[in-house]
Amino acid sequence: MQQTRRLREGKIDEYKIKEWFLTHLAGREIANKQKEGHPDFVKKINVLFQKIMNQSGAVEAYRQIVRQYTHKVNFRQNISNINSIIINFIDLLIWLREKGLSDRDLKPDNILVAADRGEYSRYLAYAGDFHLGLIDVETATVIKSPESRKIKQPPLGGTPSYLTPTHFFKNDILIQVFGDLPKILHFQDFHAVTVMIFEIVTGEHLFEKTSKLTNKILLKIKDAMQKRLDMIKVAKEVSVLFWENAQQEFEEKIKNNKELLTSVSIEVFPEAEEMLRGYIYQENKTLSMAIQQFLHNQKVFTSENNLKYLEESPLVNIVKLKQKWQKKESIPNVSEQIRLTIIKILDILGILKKRQEQFNLKMDPLFRPMTGSSEVVLSIYELLIIMFELDVRTLYRKGWCVTKTAIKAKPKTGHITKLEKTKVVTAEPEQHPIHSTKILEQESTMDTTGVIKENGYKKTQALEEAEPDTTQVLRASEGKTAS
Q: Could you tell me the pTM of the whole model?
């Protein structure tokens, strides 16, 4: 063929070869147009350049650099649009909550942008110039009504990238697992908005790996229903599968995109701040109640001063106190049984304190002092951490279906005998309601209920020898004089 011969002879114009090369570099093929020559010739040219592209790793590296650069340029040019879209997504979430509605299938395909046609070229730059509406409300339900009627059972299911395991369980199961059904249904939307905010900024799916577990979860639920298994247990098991993977993937994605996510900030308008702070307050109350109930259940420390000190002390003080009892340094003269029991109590208490302090550390950006603005300013990185943490703590309890080493006590005597493998019911208390006997943390290696509460355990004569004064021990460790 003439064109092929000319190519071999080096008679093809240089500009044409460059054009073909750049076409393939961009990931496209040369179009089969008449000006490019015979179709067979075009096909051979495409095969030739494809081989060249596939043989060089530098080509893919270059493409990646170009993609990243292009994304950064487009990102900078559209940062005001990104900011305003995020604000309106949060506003939509608040609107649904205030109206007592849960869409349950929020995703980009179901969102309508409403604005003045005359402002089409610029309206996305200002959050107040447009609104977000809902297109598909097939799975929506009313979660709050003036008549306080029972919440109607919505259709089960959703879109894998934006759903949680709660989408697959009926209302009665959700009530038994979580208690607060309206909140759980609202957090299905809360979760979807968290995912979409990440996608708006990065252009990536937040839970690409986790969403692939959907079929596995559905098969497990279907199998459980056919076998008439305990659906409450199944709900907890699939939550463990989903959320453990989701947490890992979230940490990876948030770390890999930190630079990009910290480059965008929004002013948290009052309604959004009120909603987030309200959920933070609720979670803190849950954590505080867990600590109070744990201290109430143990039978070693009973004096008001000791209980108040243990409840109010920060984690660092609890750790110091535990170390003193472990090393037998500056502690009261008590039996070995009491000393070991106290160590176990302080171990669990430290875990509960750590959980609360870690939670508050993640929430801290929402409470930092404002400078030059009447509204709190958060980076998207900070906002996503806050929203995802609230998401996880509402829809998942870490202690579900966890097996750990626990200390068991002999019936009747209550004496500590040996370490055995046993199932610890939850390291984190059940949220709705908090059961006084379910106080243990999955990270713990002890079941203190076995030490201080099992079989109606009460103080023995040994425990009545003396109640240790924790304040004296800690002050002694700090070189202070006890009051």
A: 0.73
